[in-house]
C-alpha cells in the first residue's frame, strides 16, 4: 500500500487514517489494497491521488459526507473556525441529537472525526487542548467541490473553481465570493425561493445581491467580513422566518433592523467585530 501511495504524504496519511478504522484482519486490508487501484507514478499521480481521496471519502458515513461537502463553501486555504462551523451545521439541520448527546456535542464529534480521518487538517489548538480551527487540503477541496456540483449540494458563484452555469436544478445552498452585474443578472433569472443558506464571506460588491425577501427559505445567512454591507438593504430581514443562523461578524455594521425581533427561530446571532452596541429594545423579550 505504501508503494501504491507513491511516496505522496497526503496519500499515505489518507490511507493510514482509513486503515485505522478497519479491523486488523488480513482480508480487510487486502480489500483496501485492491481498492486503491494501480500504483501512483509521475503520469498518474493526480488521478491516483484523487482515487485514494475518493476511497477515504466513500468510507464516510452519510452524515459525515454531508458535513464534509459543506466545507466547499469556503475558499482554498481558508481557516475554518470550529465554533462557527458546528453552529452552521446545526442551523442547516444536518445534526440530530443522539444517545443523550446535544446537537452541539454531536456536531463537535463530527468535526473531530473529520480531523481523525484526515479529511481536514488541524491548524489551531486552544489553550485547553481542544481544536479551534481546521483547513481543507487543496486536492481534497477539489474533490468535494466536484462531488457537491455533481449532487447539486452547493452552488458556487464568483469562485474561480466553478460557477452557476454548472448548477443542475434549483439552488439549495449558495456561496458567493464576488458578485457583479453579470452574476446579478444570472441570479435574477434563478428561483431563489428554495435557497436554504447564503454565504458571502468577505464578498465584494454586495450591493448587487438580490433582495433578501427573494431568499424566503433561508436557514443560514453569513455576511462575515463584508465591509460594505451597509450599502445593501437589510429591510427584508424580518421576512426570513426560518432563519436559524445569522452572522454579521466583521461587517462594521452599527445597528440592527428592528425586524430582527420577529426571527423567533434564530439560534445564533454573531455580532463580533461590529459597531453594534445594543439590540432592538424588545429583542431580548423573545
UniProtKB/TrEMBL annotation:
Signal peptide: 1-20
Biological process according to GO: defense response to bacterium; innate immune response-activating signaling pathway; plant-type hypersensitive response
InterPro entries per the UniProt record, alphabetical: Apaf_helical (IPR042197), Disease_R_plants (IPR044974), LRR_dom_sf (IPR032675), LRR_R13L4/SHOC2-like (IPR055414), P-loop_NTPase (IPR027417), WH-like_DNA-bd_sf (IPR036388), WHD_DRP (IPR058922)
Signal recorded as keyword: yes
Domain annotation Disease resistance R13L4/SHOC-2-like LRR: ranges: 195-281
GO molecular function, one term: ADP binding
Domain Disease resistance protein winged helix: 73-144
UniProt keywords, alphabetically: Plant defense, Repeat, Signal
Keyword field contains Transport: no
Name of protein: Disease resistance protein RPM1
